[in-house]
## 1
Amino acid sequence: MKRITIIGGGASGTLLALNLLKYSGDGRLEINLVEKRPHIGRGVAFSTQEDSHLLNVPAAKMGAYADDVEHFHRWLNDSEMDYSALAFVPRRIYGEYLREQLEEANKNKGQNVALNIFDDEAVDVEIKEGKASVQLASGDHIYSEKVALAFGNFLPPHPTIDDQSFIDSPRYFQDPWSPEVFDSIGTDDSILIVGTGLSMVDVTMQLYKLNHKGLINAISTRGQLPAVHKLGFTYPPFFEEIKGARRVTDVLKTVRAHVKKAEAESSDWRAVIDSLRPVTQQIWLDLPLAEKKYFMQHLSRYWNVARHRMAPEAALIIDELRGTGQLQILKGRLQKITWEVGIGFDVRYATIGLDQYVHADVIVNCIGSESRFDKLDSRLVKNLISAGSIRCDDLRFGLDATPDGQLKGADGQASDMLYTLGTALKGVLWESTAIPEIRVQARDLAHKLISE
Ligand SMILES: Cc1cc2nc3c(=O)[nH]c(=O)nc-3n(C[C@H](O)[C@H](O)[C@H](O)COP(=O)(O)OP(=O)(O)OC[C@H]3O[C@@H](n4cnc5c(N)ncnc54)[C@H](O)[C@@H]3O)c2cc1C
């Protein structure tokens, strides 16, 4: 009997379990899936029950299976949910879809295959003589030959300012997805959102839905909002022109030329970016470390704005709120935040060397998941790092691993027992956080684990 333990039952862990069930045939296999949240398949992204929280990928591209990307859209229609292929569907429905797919695969699995779900937190993995023992917070242990770490998104880091005493305030929320955020916000409270990406859009959409009256300020160093999806355009692949490029600026030059061409041919720049999606990881893998560092320092924010786009429905609301002045986008670097009971937060930030001030009753952190694993407040990650079983990648943007997810330990050796997929591979693959990438990784990793 082969035994595989998956730590984390968000989308990544669920898709891996799903593929293991699907491809294991009649082989003898025990799959253990450990999830500390109450629901399997939801994770951070799909736990929301808010209809205003939309997928940022159209329905026809969100299929759970790498070889059937339209599956989710067909499932919607089969479930009598009338969404077009281009619709941006509420994320809670996607969580339901993943749970149902896992249930189906479990019903149809081979006779000698078992799926065990553990409603628990994994706190350590001990590896000895070809066996892994996963220790759970409850004190139980799971024994297996292979372990996949699918721990996904972590809480964002706090804003980097010297005096961090403001984080103790009950009105500062490090976790923008905590239900407490909206339970505790008064209608007239002024809000400061740190970050101007897709999480900020979510928080603002929910405030809008709750008919919030107070001022909403959102701040980031560049004050750039995500671009807006514009569907219905295509652009032919041009990977051959950048294949093997060793300099980021060469890639950029080629992409710019194609954006110009797209515009001249009445296409759209978004279609050019989207045409790169299947090859983005390969472009990244071909670049030397120094070029990756250059990209992260100087260009990644532009890539993020262009690549991680918001649904047009969300953009309409953001525009409306900006139009009335209720939502203001601030550009600058946070310098100081003080908090006093009954007064709130006084915030100083700098824009091109000039000090600016803003007041807020509530601060919501929308900076995005912490990528520095050596800074994470996770018992499991701390234990794995101190045992030398895992280490940060060279960019400190995720974990060090082979491109197909074999984790590297402190000695730089790729493990044949510890694997990962999804967010932890961001530094190795750059694009590794969304379903279109994760479903491919889950399929390929399942094949690898079954065949080894
Ligand atoms: C708000 C938001 C919206 C998004 N929207 C989209 C979208 O529309 N389309 C898209 O393609 N992508 C989207 N993404 C990207 C998203 O990260 C992926 O689609 C996917 O959901 C990631 O799943 P995951 O399982 O890797 O991570 P997570 O969702 O973070 O799940 C990881 C799970 O592991 C569990 N876990 C962690 N550590 C342990 C432990 N020690 N023991 C037990 N359990 C543990 C956690 O409880 C969690 O449930 C979004 C991301 C966010 C944050």
## 2
Amino acid sequence: MRAKSASSFAQYAGILDTDPHEYDKLVEALTINVSKFFRNPETFASIATKVLPELWAAPSPLVRIWSAGCATGEEPYSLAVLCREYALAHGDLSKLERLRIIGSDIDRESVTVASRGRYPAGAFTDTSPAVREKYFPLENGLFSVSPEIRNLVSFERRDILEGGGPGGRLHMVVCRNVIIYFTRDTQERLFERFHDLLLPGAFLVLGKVETLLGKSREMFAPVSSRERIYRRL
Ligand SMILES: C[S@@+](CC[C@H](N)C(=O)[O-])C[C@H]1O[C@@H](n2cnc3c(N)ncnc32)[C@H](O)[C@@H]1O
């Protein structure tokens, strides 16, 4: 409101209605878009051992992973690296052809940064130097996502509280450090939505300080309580 010299909520609401760019600016100001590659590395290690073997064995023609509330893209790219490393370790890169990783965020500017795929060194403090060197070559002072990782991920602007998911039933939803900002009712509604979007037996991963609430505790079973990995029942 100060930036627009609005003296009342009503006046600011009027600006939101008439200025097409103001809504994006408001969302950008209100959202917290901090992320890192392999944030909480132990969670990624658990996904590799407890989730990927099942996704690899799944008979489906497509395997869909949704990073919901991905901020500037570090999380879906980390998932892509994890999957590629898994495929290499199992000598079957062809399995990556059926993999679809979708990163989405409500904040348009974050999605633009994610699609660009260029990051400062600070984004890699939780990443092993070997992985950074292998998949993120340094170009003009920034680390660029290499094509074999970039090609596994698509991005879109999406409000996780509105509409459906990113198309098709999902094998895993990773939604970390997003719902902490929501009310309890909204969190419960969101868990029900994730339940509808996930295939039976598919996986949900939450942030380290987030947990299932109310009815949703009967809709998912813990796979790793510590890493907040759950299986849809
Ligand atoms: C702290 S970041 C988390 C990024 C990443 N998941 C991680 O854990 O590193 C939270 C993100 O949630 C997004 N967000 C908040 N509300 C959202 C909503 N309703 N729909 C989609 N994204 C939302 C914010 O824009 C922000 O980028």
